[in-house]
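Input chain follows. Return structure tokens only.
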Amino acid sequence: MRLRGRKGIREDIERQKELVVLNAKDYKGKWSELFGNNNPIHAELGMGKGRFISEMSKKYPDINFIGVDMYDELIRKASEKAKVAHEITVENEEDAVLNIPNLRLMLFNIEHIEEAFAEGELERVYLNFSDPWPKKKHARRRLTHPGFVAKYQQILNAKGEIHLKTDSQSLFEFSLNSFADMGLRMRNISLNLHVEGIHPDHVMTEYETKFAGQGMNIHRCEVVIGQEALSTHQEQLKQASASALAAESKESAE
């Protein structure tokens, strides 16, 4: 994939020292220090133009967000989305400093993601409309291939989860099989996320807005990785089952 952008892109993103991280490996194990707090860290791997991660950072100020992509042009476009989401007005682009406390844009190749984050450093990984790599010979490049998922398991903490959204049925089927083969628990699996309309609290990506507007199905699931997250999920299932049994007993008594 090649992206063509205007001249001076690298100079643009280099000026955004408060927002853009170009030396991600230097912060491995130190991301909380960079953010200046111990809030949970969520990362979107392959953020594209950055609308999702920017709006999430505005919506959830007590969570630290990192948008990751390997292309200079997408980092630049994401910085523009961040300004829009946080309603930042800039008069002089060259002198502008985007200081958004809970958001960083990271220029990095996801293939080596374990080199940018320490063990247990993240609480959530978002995979939104990743390249489906439809040819079988390219399966290892899919971001839900076991080789990648094993890396996510390493960098996610005890509350760790993976949240996946895609318009590709083939990638979704591949992903579900990949997670199942690794013995991972999945929840909230949806083959048509917006069948009953778009929930007002749902944060959309650019692709999601486009595809949903065309009536295409959006597939989604959550993968429970961390032991604490798994225990919480199992407890919720027990409570839901107990509530269902109580309701059924009440109906029978009546």
